[in-house]
Amino acid sequence: MIPVFSVRHVEAAVSPERAVEAVREAFVAYARGEWSMPPKVYVPAYPAGDFRAMPAIGAGHALLKWVTSFPGNPARGLPTVTGLVLLSDASDGSLRAALDAGAVTALRTGAAAVLAAETLGRRDAETASVIGAGVNGRATAKTFLARGRTVMLWDIDEQRARAAAHELGAGMARSREEALAADLIATVTPGHEILLPERSLQPGQHVSLMGADGPGKAEIAVGEVARARVFCDDWEQASHNGELAHAVEAGAITQDEANELGAVLVGQAPGRQSPGDITIFDSTGLAIQDLAIALAAMERADELDLPTLDL
Ligand SMILES: NC(=O)c1ccc[n+]([C@@H]2O[C@H](COP(=O)([O-])OP(=O)(O)OC[C@H]3O[C@@H](n4cnc5c(N)ncnc54)[C@H](O)[C@@H]3O)[C@@H](O)[C@H]2O)c1
């Protein structure tokens, strides 16, 4: 019998706080070469969206996430991100669990945005904002709140920001400019519009760029990337399908100038070097993060009344 974690089971099993710790452990294990991750495969179905197949292996388990990004879906009452995570035992190949991919993704995306902000932001950072109050923006705001920070939300759709702020107990920025002036910013939009044009960031700010995780998307101008100290989740993914792809194409950044978050966490690479640095973190979303959440969920499997699959 294979346990199935629906959205509510994933959320009951893994708190945002636990997600941050689990995702931190995943970045560390990956940086140390203990966990590995074949490249994410994009299966285009444009203009509607795309499918992604994301495998990873570590801690005695293998994982596959089959997940979508269909940006036009919310207008039709459907989620942008949906699919399934399969967790298997790496010693004999047996299937151990199936989990809702949207819930796992939201938890690990919020966790990565906040982990990067905590690792790379100024020590005395006070204000935090999340731009984009959709599924993953809300998860990011929830994670900031769980870590004891106040957070303000901004969304092009004011009603959505208001509803999310009310639901989470977050604040609302009065304007996009106010949101973009925070010490710690997470951008979680579909990446159709540049939110951070050249010379928009101030010394000392940190931005976790979460939205541009596929071809043709961008939340920051190439000229602004060139002004910042650059970090990413994984150079291979970020330089091909992430925010950094545009900067690499334009010759504005090379691999030597970008450090991976895991390398910073294990002390192999420097993080922020002065309070005046502008730091940016390009997240494309890694299967190792999903593996970390799936393993954390399994720790609580016995406490939950989970439905099962009998294959
Ligand atoms: N990096 C990662 O690990 C990761 C993980 C999941 C999703 N994503 C990406 O993040 C993005 C958001 O995903 P989601 O599931 O939250 O989508 P969603 O559709 O639920 O939410 C997107 C939100 O952004 C708002 N928005 C759109 N344009 C905006 C703008 N110019 N300024 C401010 N707000 C704007 C929308 O009104 C909506 O509320 C997508 O591009 C998705 O592919 C990245």
Work out the oligomeric state of the chains in this entry: single chain
The largest β sheet comes out as: 8 strands, parallel
Strand-pairing-aware structural class: alpha/beta
The kinds of small molecule bound in this structure are: nicotinamide-adenine-dinucleotide
Shape: globular
Beta strand %: 15-25%
Would you report the number of β strands?
Answer: 15
- The poorly predicted ranges are none
Strand order of the largest sheet: 9-8-7-10-11-14-12-13
Distance between the termini: 7 Å
How many H/I helices? 11
Rg computed from alpha carbons, rounded to a whole number of angstroms: 18 Å
Q: pLDDT average, as an integer?
A: 96
Briefly note the CATH topology name of the largest domain.
Answer: Rossmann fold
Label the CATH architecture of the largest domain: 3-Layer(aba) Sandwich
Task: Give a nutshell description of this structure.
With 311 residues, this protein is α/β, with parallel strands linked by helices.
Describe the structure.
With 311 residues, the chain is an alpha/beta fold. An eight-stranded parallel β-sheet has the order 9-8-7-10-11-14-12-13. Strands 2-3-4-5-6-1-15 form a seven-stranded mixed β-sheet. The protein has two domains: 2-104 and 288-309, ornithine cyclodeaminase, domain 1 (2-Layer Sandwich), CATH 3.30.1780; 122-285, Rossmann fold (3-Layer(aba) Sandwich), CATH 3.40.50. Strand 7 (128-131), helix 4 and strand 8 (152-154) form a beta-alpha-beta unit. 35% of the residues lie in helices and 23% in strands. Helix 1 (7-13) packs parallel to helix 3 (101-120), helix 2 (16-31) crosses helix 11 (287-299) and helix 3 crosses helix 4. The protein is globular, with a radius of gyration of 18 Å. 49% of the residues are buried. The chain has helices spanning 7-13, 16-31, 101-120, 135-146, 158-168, 176-180, 222-227, 235-241, 244-249, 261-265, 287-299, and strands at 2-5, 41-45, 49-58, 61-69, 83-89, 95-100, 128-131, 152-154, 171-172, 184-187, 206-209, 229-232, 258-260, 279-282, 308-309. The structure holds nicotinamide-adenine-dinucleotide (NAD).
